[in-house]
Amino acid sequence: MDDSLAEARQRILDQVREFAAVSLAPRPFIPGESTVPVSGKVLDGDDLAALVDASLDGWLTAGRFTTQFQDSLADYVGTRAASFVNSGSSANLVALSGLTSPKLGKRALKPGDEVITVASGFPTTLNPILQNGLVPVFVDVELGTYDAIGEQLREAVGPKTRAIMMAHTLGNPFDLDLVQELCKEHKLWLVEDSCDALGSTYRGKRTGSFGDTATVSFYPAHHITTGEGGMVFTKHPLVTRQVESFRDWGRDCYCETGQDNTCDKRFEWQLGDLPLGYDHKYTYSHIGYNLKGTDMQAALGVSQLTKLDGFVAARKANFAYLMQRFAEVEGLILPRATEHSDPAWFGFPITLADDLAVDREELMRFLDAHHVGTRLIFAGNLLRQPAYRGIERRVIGDLRNSDTVMNRSFWLGVYPGLTRAQLDYAADAVIAFITGRGGSF
């Protein structure tokens, strides 16, 4: 780039930062009028400048920022490779689909194989199992951790079981000691849905580094954001190739975007029933998708990643403060971290005890009326959802805790944009309703 263009670019980026200093300045919190969001993005001038910087390249699809983002996040998580995609849901889809590739030989997942998961979760952890013709095996969750019950995981392994795919619920790592033991003993794949848990650790290792494949999401509610976006982590080059093939139309070629003939034999391949020398860039080994992200998204991710440690620390501090506020409130089942873990909490989950005479929907309506954001723990019991009526599945136990989550649980925000005044207002509102003082709040 010549000096005049470089100087013009810098002037533009400086102006973007000046604009952001005004447009992104925090607004005063007015109790009862301002909203206490349950989640949200935290942006600054560098983030907006990164978006504009990438757009000025005019490249738009995967480019220099994508490579930097993938490499930096793989290093952060502690895994071998990272593949950027257009959403966390897409990440889950290709993370599992990649394990169905015939190129994995006898270990390739095949229709009818079973995959263990939890009944209380988000649809896009379950959907790839069904979309690939696999059979989910549902286990229940513990109240408080909202992760799989260990004894049920052991019981769930059967002669057709080939994988475990489940999430670290609200950032709280599941029992990775047990899960890794089962995977090793029974030669199971582990697909680690870490979409809500970027920055969480288990025995000092970051989530996302344990699975054969693992995923994170960059939707604005998550720990860092690219707007839409997600990442798939992989340990083995052969698995990485299949994940990226499913992401990139199912093609056999592994050239990066904008590159040709990485293999030095572009016109020398003979695959399937194609003629010898058919262009490798247009040879397809899988029935895939186009799930790539853009370089503008990746540029935002590169900028956000520099702030991730601060975001994680803020989430932990906000979570600890809410725990302090609710510690003496009777009738609440408060969250607890799983053993050996240090969660980067996505939210603060609360379950109303059975003997507490409070209706959850009435509480949530009260909080909504007072501008306090809440969310359910995703789909509750997935098997109660209309989308999954009649699906082929196997169920361990009666899923009673998943039903409790469906009827009695919700969560409050802990994201880094929340102030102490907002946390206090949210906690005061919950406590006022539960103690019968909602009318005077």
How does this structure look, described?
The protein has 441 residues and is an alpha/beta fold. The chain folds into two domains: 26-250 and 286-441, Type I PLP-dependent aspartate aminotransferase-like (Major domain) (Aspartate Aminotransferase, domain 2); 257-284, no CATH class. The protein contains 13 helices and 14 strands. The chain has an eight-stranded mixed β-sheet, sandwiched between helices. Helix 5 links the parallel strand 2 and strand 3. Helix 1 (3-23) runs antiparallel to helix 2.
Largest sheet: 8 strands, mixed
Rg computed from alpha carbons, rounded to a whole number of angstroms: 23 Å
The separation of the N and C termini measures 61 Å
What's the number of extended β-strand segments? 14
* CATH architectural category of the largest domain: 3-Layer(aba) Sandwich
Order of helices and strands: HHHEHEHEHEHEEEEEHHHEEEHEHEH
* Spatial strand arrangement across the major sheet: 1-9-8-5-4-2-3-13
Counted by DSSP, the helix tally is 13
Task: Average the pLDDT over all residues and give the rounded result.
Answer: 96
**Might you state the CATH topology name of the largest domain?**
Aspartate Aminotransferase, domain 2
What's the CATH class label of the largest domain?
Answer: Alpha Beta
Please estimate the helix content. 25-40%
Global structural class:
alpha/beta
Number of domains in the coordinates? 2
The named CATH superfamily of the largest domain: Type I PLP-dependent aspartate aminotransferase-like (Major domain)
Residue windows where pLDDT falls under 50 for at least 5 positions = none
Shape: flat
- Strand residues, percent: 5-15%
